[in-house]
């Protein structure tokens, strides 16, 4: 029998009122140094933030005037070594990161929060590779995590919200297909004005993976029927 595949987000509800969230501002992060970061997409500033709760440094890659700015284009991006660095086709992470930088550069203002410690939706690189092996044996991405004793998604996003607050962002246009990220920012007192779809075309290696994210994890993906394999053909999910 396959494991139960009900998805429950790891993030716990925070105080409803922005005032209550403000009382605990920067409880998780401490700002570190910043430097100029010229990229193929344009010039940015990169700032490090130490996460007191995990001992990990997250990164904010940003450009334009942010203090008091509204409807700032934001991408909260979870670290993915295989996709972001090595160009893995098993996920859509690398193309999503590059697209976010491109969109922000074109807009002239925005932030990418690069959440380190989120590898494999929070299970780490070793367990992520074990999950890949299980996926090659027929489990989907949710079932593989559960088979290894993990939640479908173990990530938390309090630090991302605090980083945006530290940068002075007043409200956000969030580039994401994941409603859990939007909810997590709102629970920390940030105003999310709108969600900006941030979808990458599927390829033969990740089509079933993306379909699973839509069907089991609630991701808002408009996958074309041609890109989504039938359930009977999903040997690699």
Automatic annotation (TrEMBL):
Group of enzyme by EC: hydrolase
GO MF, one example: GTP cyclohydrolase II activity
Lineage of source species: Bacteria, Pseudomonadati, Pseudomonadota, Betaproteobacteria, Burkholderiales
A GO BP annotation: riboflavin biosynthetic process
Gene3D superfamilies in UniProt: GTP cyclohydrolase II
Free-text comment on the cofactor: Binds 1 zinc ion per subunit.
UniProt protein name: GTP cyclohydrolase-2
Species whose genome carries this gene: Sphaerotilus sulfidivorans
Keyword Nucleotide-binding: yes
Keywords in alphabetical order: GTP-binding, Hydrolase, Metal-binding, Nucleotide-binding, Riboflavin biosynthesis, Zinc
Boundaries of every GTP cyclohydrolase II domain copy: 34-196
NCBIfam families reported in the protein's UniProt record: PRK00393.1, ribA
Residues involved in Zn(2+) binding: 80, 91, 93
Region (Disordered): 1-22
